[in-house]
Amino acid sequence: MTSLALRGVRVEYGGCAVVSNVDESLAAGEWLCLIGPNGAGKSSLLRAIAGLVTCSGDVLFDGGALDSFSARELARKVAFVPQNPLLPDDMSVSEYVMLGRNPFISTFGRESARDRRVVTSLVEELSLSVYARRPLGTLSGGERQRVVIARALAQEAPVLLLDEPTSALDLGHQQHALELVDQLRRRRNLVVVSAMHDLTLAGLYSDRLLLMHQGVVVARGSAREVLRSETLNEFYGVSARVIHADDGTVVVVPQRSPNEVQ
Amino acid sequence: MTTPTAFSEERAGRAVWWLLGGFAVVIVAVVGLMLGPAGPAWWRVPVALLDRLPFTTIDSGVSDAQWNIVWQIRAPRVVLAAVVGAMLSLAGASYQGVFRNPLVDPYLLGVAAGAGLGATLAFSVARDTTSTWPVDPVPLAAFVGGVVAVALTYTVGTAFGRSRSATTLVLAGVAVTSLATAIQTFVLQRNNDVVRQVYSWILGRLTSATWGDVRLVLPYILTSSIILLMYRRVIDVLRVGDDEARALGVNVNQVRVVVVLAATLGTSAAVAVSGLIGFVGIIVPHAVRLLMGSSNRIVLPLSMFAGAVFLIGADIPGRLLTSPSETPIGVVTAFFGAPFFLFLLRMREVRQ
After folding, report:
1. A138, part of any domain
2. Within a domain: residue A129?
3. Number of domain units in chain A
């Protein structure tokens, strides 16, 4: 069953295409990772799926076209975690997670008992209970990332978009955050689309990779299929070794190119 | 622990602040009724007020003539101060919320300059044609001037800035303000004789407040306040930025238009009867934020109460200190407001 489908998605900024003709279908529970060099169009594609930039082509949620939803309806279909979310310093963690319930609260209404239950159980599920009343300004990078994910999950949307979810985190916290997303998508059967820079982590956690270059999808498939030395050289302009570990993990190791070493 | 109880505590906390706010306004209003030149002894006023309540009869020893001073001269002034103070503060807090900029208030998008120009035209150019009118043309002209200026700002700001970004709008406001001020200066130069009148209007006054003024502005201010208060939860969602608010299902542009229109309408009405009382729309919401945190769900209603208290209070020294010739209230708000603001900033520094 297809949860999210992209048909010929194209995004233009000022007449210049930054994403062209992306086709993709994702079933519930699938994790797709967008990779590619800076400026490849990963963020633009995510923002198009979230309805934050206008695009041509079709973005379909369970068969329903993005354009046919109101902002509120769309926010119940798709949750978006931007690369640098704005966290008001003196807002408490539970207040912030409650913002994710906005699509369920009428404009002039107030949160219902159910909204409060959802927030409370999310805060517990993501081990944030101790922080619930702490202001966001006092949290560390890893805690902030968890809080933002909690807010996105409060939307109870079947599709979760993550733009560079680990770019501000150290190795341990990167892994924690991605493990958390992985558990949650399995538990809730979420479609996850994330843009990632770390290719090894991208290959490790996602089901499929989509390699973009100048707005075009140039390679797609499993980590084994996409993460190849020649491909990386061609599109990232780097020299890297790709190691296939015994357990099936694909590891990308940067190398200094011979002519620069001399 | 976040339990459902934590949320109900939060709500109970908010309800307490509404009650305390309302209570503070009543207390300060009664003090405002007690003070002033002429009239009954100050301590008799609360007694006389109790006497006027239904089902109570107390001999307050206040004569009808004295009561008239309290009810026909002081009361409209106190009520108008409360209404205008509440409106300017609420509008300021709302503007700061939707633009996520702590320094904006309705004056910035041209209300002040437009109203000033309108009043100047009424005092000078239109003097002869309007002298036979049954109503005072100045508030009307100020109101129209304020609304037209903001409409112009909005049209220009959204036409040139395709993205309707908040910055474009604020810059358009600066341009429209300069334009209106330039025209006003030009008109004033040609009509030297009204400079004094215009100047005293600009500094703001509640001196000549009547129940008629209150009735004139109340419908606009009530409408505006109700709309702004209804949007307080949504304005709070905007704190995470336009993009994220949009991703959370908020129609950001629509909310901004409605809030700007409502705040402009209310502010123009307030300015029309009271002149340009500066400082209130910025200082009151800031004081509330420094004490209570930045949640717009609390800042909006509390700014309203605090604004009412502040302006009733600011009006009292104005009429006591320099009677019979009064200090304009705009001077008082700035004179007491600025140091108070610095004190609050200092307190925050110490606390952190």
Report:
1. no
2. no
3. 1
> What kind of architecture, by CATH, is found in domain B81-351?
Orthogonal Bundle (1.10)
Tell me the average pLDDT across A22-43.
93
- What is the dihedral angle through the alpha carbons of A42, A47, A51, A56, rounded to the nearest 10 degrees? -40
Give contacts of A156 with chain B, Cβ < 8 Å. Answer: none
pLDDT at A76 over 70: yes
pLDDT-wise least confident of A93-107, B56-70, B158-172:
B158-172
CB–CB contact B250 A88 (8 Å):
no
SS3 string of B284-301? HHHHHHHHHCCCHHHHHH
* Cα gap B123→B61, rounded to integer Å: 44
Q: How far apart are the CA of B334 and the nearest CA of chain A, in angstroms?
A: 28
| Rounded average pLDDT over B39-62 | 78
Pairing mode of beta strands A159-163, A191-195: parallel
Nearest C-alpha neighbor of B120 from the set B178, B186, B172:
B186
Alpha carbon distance A216, A207 (integer Å) = 20
Q: Please report, for residues A69, A155, B246, the alpha-carbon distance to residue A74 in angstroms, rounded to integers and kept in the order given.
A: 6, 10, 10
Candidate from B240, B241, B294 with C-beta closest to A90: B294
Q: What is the distance between the alpha carbons of residues B232 and B234, in angstroms, rounded to a whole number?
A: 6
Q: For residue A137, tell me if it sits in a domain.
A: no
Predicted confidence band of residue A120 (pLDDT cuts 50, 70, 90): very high
- Residues belonging to chain B with any Cβ–Cβ distance to chain A shorter than 8 Å: 1-4, 6-7, 230-231, 233-234, 237, 239-241, 243-244, 246-251, 293-295
Q: State yes or no: pLDDT of B257 exceeds 90.
A: no
The alpha carbon of residue A154 is apart from the nearest alpha carbon of chain B, in Å, by 10
- Structural domain range at position A185: 2-88+157-261
Q: How far is A207 from chain B (nearest CA, A)?
A: 25
Token pair 């004190």 in the structure block, residue: B343
What does the alpha-carbon distance between residue B136 and residue B126 come to, in Å, rounded to a whole number?
12
Shortest CA distance to B241 belongs to which of A98, A251, A88, A208? A88
pTM for this structure? 0.87
A94 in a domain, yes or no?
no
Residues constituting chain A: 262
What token pair was written down for A104? 């369920």
**CATH number of the domain residue A219 falls in:** 3.40.50.300
Asked if the Cβ–Cβ distance from B2 to A119 is below 8 Å, we say yes
pLDDT band (50, 70, 90) for residue A104: very high
In angstroms, the CA B278 to CA A142 distance is 44
**What gap in Å lies between CA A116 and CA B123, rounded to an integer?**
57
Q: How far apart are CA B67 and CA B81, in angstroms?
A: 20
Q: What is the mean pLDDT of chain B?
A: 84
A105–B1 C-beta distance less than 8 A: no
